[in-house]
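Below is how a single chain appears once it has passed through the pipeline. First comes the sequence as given, then the structure the pipeline wrote out for it. We keep one example in the README because the format questions we get most often are answered faster by looking than by reading.
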Amino acid sequence: MTTHQPLAARMRPTTLDELVGQDDLIFDGSPLKGIVEGSSQASVLLWGPPGTGKSSIAGIIGRSTDKRFIELSATAASVKEVREVFAAARTARDEDGTSTILFLDEIHRFTKSQQDILLPAVEDGSIALIGATTENPSFSVISALQSRSILLVLKPLETGTISALLCRAIDDPRGLDGSVTAQEHVLDEIAALASGDSRQALGRLEVCAQVVHAAGDTEITPGTVARVTGSATQRYDRDGNQHYDVISAFIKSMRGSDPDAALHWLARMIEAGEDPRFIARRLMVHASEDVGMADPSVLPIAVATAQAVALIGMPEARINLAHATVAIATAPKSRSIVTGIDQAVADVQAGRTGGVPMHLRDAHYPGAKALGHGADYLMPADYPHSVVAQQYLPDGTGSQYYTPTTNGFEQTVTNRLSSIEQITKGMS
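Resulting structure:
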């Protein structure tokens, strides 16, 4: 390899033994090892964040296999090129039995119709497909390809793993060949800034080395790192898997009454550039869904937050978002509102509706009273405690939808409903 290549390219592993951080995928009999050793012709989907080894795995397979190895990127490859690869693969198979492996990087960039083109060649064994993606295949790869492939999930690299890789890159002749030094805590800092992305960490190390060389020095210090970097890059795809995972963690942290975790996930979304209006909408939903009547004051806080986001904008609105987040996380919880409306909707969908009782019908338009509408209606305000026993539900429906808990304000609601029940029973 030439030193004109980026450090990450020069340090790319050449064997499975050099691959770091993905031990769960490498064991005797594993699909990955079988493909590398040539005992398996399976198609695989490599799914993981950037810099975790997807392209490296493909390169290892390409160097170790005796099969034809073709590499394309979905960001640049045309349908014509793909068809040409298939034609050549079938020719090679028919003439001398040679198998073909196609590595398609960024497979999620292919549209569904483009992915459909891959199916016949995978189906008839003309090629073994290795598709690499940073997007959840459940959303980005057609189900027919998923069903014909083995999914291998690559994990973000641990900080310690990346730090060890940086240490190796400093000493390795392929890397910096000992031309710089760095203390362990400095390498740990560079590794932590990479958010699990080894390529990014190696790139930052290389820039640090260039800076110290330009200054006539050899040691990379914390000051060097501070000069060449800002903050850690967040892995967050607003239209894909990370978006759903982070918002899910945010919601579940509020639901679990953990304000610190909720603020962490909120900060992740803010730093990644998530639309604050989206966050505000989720806060309004969960103010009712998870808190509800246990603390009715939380919904107005969430609504006010949405208004503040619209009026103030970022970055100041982060404070309003944090306000509502903590209010929801620390409030008593009750899902009685969700349960109640869902049960009522289920009755309606099942046809358990019934007619509006005559005494509840509108009697304000001409002729309504002649039809009996509103007859015998009892005005609650005319009775003690503004409570009177009369039918409000239509015939044929459930007798109770809302069952309050004893959490927070719902204890007061429970007591109130119990009093109403006692009053109405005394009237019957």
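The CA atoms of residues 102 and 356 lie 66 Å apart.

See the next section for the split statistics.
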